[in-house]
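The instructor's notes for this session suggest beginning with a concrete chain rather than abstract definitions. Hand out the sequence below and ask the class to guess, before any prediction is shown, which regions might be ordered.
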Amino acid sequence: MKSINPGKQRKKLYNAPQHLKRKWIASHLEENLLLKYDKRSIPVIKGDTVKVMRGSFKGHEDKIAGVNVKKRTLEIEGITMSKADGNKIAKPIHHSNVLITKLNLTDKWRRKKLEKGLTEEAKKEIEKEAEMQLKQAEEEKKRLEEEAKALKDAEEAEESVEEKDLEPEEKEKLKTTTKTETEKKKEMKKQPVKKSTAKKPEDKKPQTKKKTPSKTVKEKEEK
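After discussion, reveal the predicted structure:
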């Protein structure tokens, strides 16, 4: 940014396009990572392990659950705040208040950027770490799928047990109700729609009353 004027700096920051805003959401690396990758800071992504350096959650270390580009904040696992209705939501934390302790190397494009200007030994170490992380991610995915299947099976088993526990009389009642409903529907379909044969009322003309001669007219006639 060339301008020294803080107003112009803020204007550029808020009106910047999305791809630049995403690059600016960066945090400092821990000392051992700084020496390893020869970089002071790097853009943060989902899956990076991070340590909070300021605020009420100072010292908390966990993975990043999400990145909000518009507000330039991070959602970290285990950091929540309660709403007025009692529900808990993730508390947003600014990327400048955070220190990266472990990088997520599952993205090949990120690895290529990190490997630029490094020795072959360092590159091999990065690739090994990436393979380990990919394996862990696959194992976690399988575990979550198995848990979801187990929950589904348990729900189905509970439903089957409830059906078995129903008494035979209740089952018969259910059958009879379903039969009567189906019969009623069939009858409704069979019955033809009756057309209304009632004649339309003819338009009656308004009756005109005969005018009676007034008294003055009668007196004149008698004379």
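Then share the key points. The chain has a mean pLDDT of 83. The chain has seven helices and seven strands.
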